[in-house]
Amino acid sequence: MGNSEKSISSAVIKRLPRYFRYLGVLKANNITRISSKELSEQMMVTASQIRQDLNNFGGFGQQGYGYNVDNLYTEIGKILGLDKRNDMIIVGAGNLGQALANYQSFNEDYGYKVMALFDVNPKLIGISVRGVKVLDIDEMESFIKAHDIKIAALTLPKDQAPEMAKRLVEWGIKGIWNFAPIDLHLPEDVTVENVHLAESLMTLTYNIHNREESGD
């Protein structure tokens, strides 16, 4: 990928997981090749957009042939880092943390592995969620260092999240999947992906009500 990686826009990077998902479906249906036009019809993205996006990483297509589905799926997987080990922990073993640990898709389909959940609640410590133990938060620093964990999902209340995020970074975490409804201010070399569930729901209700009003 070289140095051009830095200049690739976040919009392109956000589309890559969608390409990966669609190609996974094609693969499962034993489709071996697809044109950018056919892919564009399925994904609702223009064919030229698809070609532009993939040209950022070398293209992969052949004139008159289209894309080899297996090859493109593998290459996009590599770009997304799915060919590497991606062990993670979940901080906060309440309902949301446990739901994430139970969510099979990212564990089994994409190779992310939840190594442990952490909590302060003595009622939760020691239980297993899908074979993964809930450990005392006091053990977290040594666990992160011993297992070289780089990814943490943060499913804590918003008043606890900023302080915990700082500690995670001090202990070597490089990426935080943040479910707490608060912005985290962390060093530039730490990546934060925010999943604001309430904001997503508000966008949904805005669209419902605006469509109703414009339809009057």
Automatic annotation (TrEMBL):
Gene3D superfamilies: NAD(P)-binding Rossmann-like Domain, Winged helix-like DNA-binding domain superfamily/Winged helix DNA-binding domain. GO terms for cellular component: cytoplasm. It is found in: Cytoplasm. One of its GO terms (molecular function) is DNA-binding transcription factor activity. NAD(+) binds at residues 92-97. Residues 81-183 form the CoA-binding domain. The keyword Phosphoprotein does not apply. Keywords: Cytoplasm, DNA-binding, NAD, Repressor, Transcription, Transcription regulation. Pfam families: CoA_binding, Put_DNA-bind_N. Homodimer. Modulates transcription in response to changes in cellular NADH/NAD(+) redox state. Belongs to the transcriptional regulatory Rex family. This is Redox-sensing transcriptional repressor Rex.
